């Protein structure tokens, strides 16, 4: 482990302590929250610049391909996200091991519509496979969802595979009739694949079909 003189949070960690988990429709048994995640060795906090050495990227590789990201690349991206002020990458650390075991990102998108309002997008949700089934997925998603509301977002949405719709529905997200299609065009594949993929994948019979679910906040 590299020794750091000072660690930097991506955003102010104090904002997580005031989130009211009773506002979420999620059922926690036993009740847990970002401030009190149920075990003294669990910590819910913003990403830190030192998390390169706590297995953050290895955790993300359980979600999708990460690639060979160097420390410099990680720190550059961290600085860009922090400077923008719109990225709220949030993690769960097992402090016994100094390891990141859960993560979710809230990205705040600035709009002209709705009186120059902001909306949230939930991305890159993952829990380490040896820690799944212990409410940590719910904990990290509810944390960033409440954070979106706290930051003034008028809604939050996400794209997910069909099999996860039920999971997100228990956390308050809904499929909006006639308006929940997820469409994609990829630029990282060969041209033939690009043509095939530039289409809605709703209705595909594969379990990889993707839909958009949204969480509306009362104004
Ligand atoms: C917007 C996005 O990023 S979508 C991508 C989501 N991430 C992934 O698919 C990565 C791989 N999967 C994971 O990391 C995890 O399985 C997660 C994050 C989906 C869930 O994490 P967990 O810690 O296991 O969730 P948690 O213990 O809080 O489970 C909550 C509930 O969802 C259910 N659930 C969890 N994972 C799944 C799943 N893959 N499919 C269906 N149901 C699920 C659980 O059974 C549980 O139900 P219960 O409350 O009735 O018992």
Question: What can you tell me about this protein's structure?
Answer:
This protein has a domain at 14-158: Gcn5-related N-acetyltransferase (GNAT) (Aminopeptidase), CATH 3.40.630. 25% of the residues lie in helices and 25% in strands. The chain contains seven helices and eight strands, in the order αβααββαβαβαβαββ. A six-stranded mixed beta sheet has the order 1-2-3-4-5-8, with helices on both faces. A two-stranded antiparallel sheet has the order 6-7. The longest helix is centred in the middle third of the chain and has 15 residues, at 136-150. It is globular and about 50 Å long. Acetyl coenzyme *A (ACO) binds next to strand 4, helix 5, strand 5 and helix 6. It catalyses: D-glucosamine 6-phosphate + acetyl-CoA = N-acetyl-D-glucosamine 6-phosphate + CoA + H(+). One of its GO terms (molecular function) is glucosamine 6-phosphate N-acetyltransferase activity. This is Glucosamine 6-phosphate N-acetyltransferase. Belongs to the acetyltransferase family. GNA1 subfamily.
Write the layout of secondary structure elements.
Layout: H1 14-17, E1 42-46, H2 56-60, H3 71-84, E2 87-94, E3 99-110, H4 113-116, E4 118-127, H5 136-150, E5 153-161, H6 165-169, E6 183-184, H7 191-197, E7 199-200, E8 210-216
Parallel strand pairs: 4-5
Antiparallel strand pairs: 1-2, 2-3, 3-4, 5-8, 6-7
Bound molecules: acetyl coenzyme *A (ACO).
């Amino acid at each position: 482990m590299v020794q750091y003189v000072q660690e930097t949070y991506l955003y102010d960690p104090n904002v997580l302590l005031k989130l009211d988990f009773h506002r979420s429709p999620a059922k926690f048994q036993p009740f847990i929250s970002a401030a009190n995640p149920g075990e003294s060795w669990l910590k819910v906090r913003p990403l830190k610049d030192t998390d390169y050495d706590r297995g953050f990227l290895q955790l993300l590789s359980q979600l999708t391909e990460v690639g060979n990201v160097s420390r410099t690349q990680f720190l550059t991206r961290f600085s860009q996200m922090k400077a923008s002020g719109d990225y709220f990458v949030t993690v769960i650390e097992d402090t016994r091991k100094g390891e990141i075991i859960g993560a979710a990102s809230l990205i705040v998108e600035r709009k002209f519509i709705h009186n120059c309002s902001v909306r949230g997008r939930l991305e890159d949700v993952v829990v380490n496979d040896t820690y799944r089934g212990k409410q940590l997925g719910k904990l990290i998603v509810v944390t960033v969802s409440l954070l979106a509301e706290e930051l003034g977002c008028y809604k939050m949405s996400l794209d997910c595979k069909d099999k996860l719709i039920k999971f997100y529905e228990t956390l308050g997200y809904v499929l909006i009739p006639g308006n929940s299609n997820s469409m994609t065009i990829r630029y990282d594949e060969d041209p033939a694949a690009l043509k095939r993929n530039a289409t809605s994948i709703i209705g595909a019979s594969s379990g990889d079909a993707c839909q958009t679910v949204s969480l509306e906040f009362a104004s």
